[in-house]
Amino acid sequence: MSKRKSVTMDDVDGFSAAQLFGQGVCYTYDDVIFHPGHINFAATEVDLTTKLTKNITIRTPIVSSPMDTVTEADMAIAMASVGGAGFLHYNMTQEEQIANLKAVKAHRLGYVTRPEVVSPDATLEFLDELATRRGFTSACVTDTGAVGGKLLGLVTSRDAELVADRSTKVVDVMTSASDLLVGSATDGVAALEELLLKSKKGKMPVVNAETGELVGLITRASIKQKKLLPPPGAPSLDKKGRLLCGAAIGTRPADRDRAVALAAEGVDALILDSSQGDSTYQIEMVKFLKKTIPEVDVIAGNIVTQNQARRLLDAGADALRVGMGSGSICTTQEVCAVGRGQATAVYKVANLAAQYDVPIIADGGIQNSGHVTKALTLGASTAMCGSMFAGTTEAPGEYFYVDGVRVKKYRGMGSLDAMKKGSDTRYLSESGHLKVAQGVSGTVKDKGSVCKMVPYLIHGVKQGFQDMGAKSHAHATELRNAGDMRVETRTGAAQAEGGVHDMHSYKKVLW
Ligand SMILES: NC(=O)C1=CN([C@@H]2O[C@H](COP(=O)(O)OP(=O)(O)OC[C@H]3O[C@@H](n4cnc5c(N)ncnc54)[C@H](O)[C@@H]3O)[C@@H](O)[C@H]2O)C=CC1
Ligand SMILES: O=c1[nH]c(=O)c2[nH+]cn([C@@H]3O[C@H](COP(=O)(O)O)[C@@H](O)[C@H]3O)c2[nH]1
Ligand SMILES: [K+]
């Protein structure tokens, strides 16, 4: 018999999530910290495949928020390309939102996102204006002035720069289609890229060989750019092989028409975009949508409690969006005195939604990969980001400089700024002329492309899962439900210790 005294452990080392979140205190991501688990697999083996909604599975558990400084077509294309999803905002007309959706659905991976296209009658002056605003050096010319029109030619800065008369029409200076290197859309992207590289040319329009209609553009610069990015992995696609795309709508009567029109163009999921989703308006809307366009999944919200969740789940919601006042630009908790700490909100709502087999989206307050990891391990199936993706190349709006720093605008959808643009037709509009903002407007730094950011972010999350000993989302759920995933709160000093400290100076470079 061994003489060594048997080793005893404290009865309680950390808490189960149920214990921690059942004490009448609400916490957010930074308040809580997870205990490491046992590692017997590599971080690269972690599978983060998850449900966006009841019927949609995606490989990358991150989505972009339907805000007018975050998600239009370019962001939705980029997010689906890296295996996540984007939700088009609706602070624009129905026609504009449909045009954005069509651009996503028409996009082919490997092609330039939304190539510049002009009509043959456009003047060089018009081209100059476009170039200054959008910073491009060439444009395809089609009979309709848009992708889908018959390709007539290509106009580059070289064709146009030395022409003194700026009222000259594009048709008079362009290189016509018959003299161009043109690819056929039936060829794969790899073959098209090879053709372009071999030709030593800079750009190649790609057409439908039978009709001559422009399908897209491949450029030497875009091939080079792709080589600099981490491999994106499998994209998120719909049943027809097109990029997945979601969109937001409201709960006003006109939003019913908008929803039906979006469904006709192939939208995959609709978010009912509200700060407080537990309303008769939303319940009626969920029921209407499930009856009228059952092929489209409906995401209801925002909510933060089980009571709110139950009503929306009973109405038939296919996913719930969780978060009230947690967003970086949100002032709802200050203005309205309602909301909840985001970690508690996610945990509590996820617990109830799991009983309906409905996934939840943790929306707002995500600042780093650790927050995504916490959201997912507390029960969210995806994390929704606003500020993290604002300021990227794919976010709407142009860059400008503030105190020498390159920035883009980022604003809350309930800010006065956004309300002026259009959401005032709904936002607190019951009060007539009185407008009380529930968000702010400001700027965020240039962050480069989301196509580069997301793969690193996801790898950070995979490392977090590995540290906790969870191989997948389902495994994390198992550990959490069994009480094997241990969690504690952190004091202010512990939080400070967990961050960078005692440095004279440092630079935080994440990847
Ligand atoms: N997640 C969050 O913490 C917050 C998000 N936001 C964002 O701000 C934007 C605006 O949010 P909300 O003002 O909550 O938008 P909303 O459209 O849900 O509500 C605006 C007002 O219209 C009323 N309303 C809605 N449907 C109606 C109908 N059918 N008939 C009559 N009245 C109706 C609502 O009760 C509310 O008073 C959204 O993009 C939202 O995501 C704003 C504040 C907080
Ligand atoms: O109180 C608010 N006032 C607003 O004006 C506002 N606009 C957006 N949102 C919500 O914030 C989320 C984005 O949050 P992050 O920037 O932290 O990612 C978004 O996804 C929204 O849920 C708002 N909340
Ligand atoms: K906030």
From TrEMBL:
NAD(+) binds at residues 273-275, 323-325. The active site is at 330 (thioimidate intermediate), 426 (proton acceptor). The keyword Oxidoreductase applies. It catalyses: IMP + NAD(+) + H2O = XMP + NADH + H(+). Keywords: CBS domain, Cytoplasm, GMP biosynthesis, Metal-binding, NAD, Oxidoreductase, Potassium, Purine biosynthesis. Pathway: Purine metabolism; XMP biosynthesis via de novo pathway; XMP from IMP: step 1/1. One of its GO terms (cellular component) is cytoplasm. Its cofactor is K(+). Pfam families: IMPDH. GO terms for molecular function: IMP dehydrogenase activity; metal ion binding; nucleotide binding. K(+) binds at residues 325, 327, 330. One of its GO terms (biological process) is GMP biosynthetic process. SMART domains: CBS, IMPDH. IMP binds at residues 328, 363-365, 386-387, 410-414, 438. Mycophenolic acid (MPA) is a non-competitive inhibitor that prevents formation of the closed enzyme conformation by binding to the same site as the amobile flap. In contrast, mizoribine monophosphate (MZP) is a competitive inhibitor that induces the closed conformation. MPA is a potent inhibitor of mammalian IMPDHs but a poor inhibitor of the bacterial enzymes. MZP is a more potent inhibitor of bacterial IMPDH. Residues 111-170, 174-236 form the CBS domain. Its EC number is 1.1.1.205. Its main location: cytoplasm. It is found in: Cytoplasm. Homotetramer. Catalyzes the conversion of inosine 5'-phosphate (IMP) to xanthosine 5'-phosphate (XMP), the first committed and rate-limiting step in the de novo synthesis of guanine nucleotides, and therefore plays an important role in the regulation of cell growth. NCBIfam families: IMP_dehydrog. This is Inosine-5'-monophosphate dehydrogenase. It comes from Micromonas pusilla (strain CCMP1545). The lineage of its organism: Eukaryota, Viridiplantae, Chlorophyta, Mamiellophyceae, Mamiellales.
